[in-house]
Write a structure and sequence with these properties.
globular; about 15% helix; 3 helices; alpha+beta; six-stranded antiparallel sheet
Length: about 100
């Protein structure tokens, strides 16, 4: 499933290319910290490549797919600096049988 990211870090366009692997991590909410586009009372799912933050998965996609389906490896599919767009692809999780 492809997901368009929010709050994209500008440095991403010079450090990464389409096809790169990244990782989705859950970032716990911190009551005492204000961060633009990140609700203070909800956990956030942030895409990282190494220590570099790529962007944030939108809340509507988190609600649609569920937290467990998001955490793990992903691939950067498209990057367009002119429109400030980064799209990732999350592979389907294998069911335990």
């Amino acid at each position: 499933m492809e997901i368009k990211l929010d709050a994209i870090s500008p440095v991403v366009y010079s450090l990464m290319r389409a096809g790169a692997l990244a990782e989705v991590r859950r970032q716990l909410a911190n009551k005492n910290e204000y961060r633009e586009k990140i609700p203070t009372v909800q956990d956030t799912f942030v895409v990282f490549r190494g220590v570099t933050k790529v962007g944030i998965i939108p809340r509507d996609k988190v609600a649609e797919l569920g937290a467990k389906a998001l955490i793990g490896k992903c691939r950067i599919v498209r990057m367009e600096q002119s429109s400030n767009t980064v799209i990732i692809e999350i592979p389907p999780k294998k069911s335990a049988s």
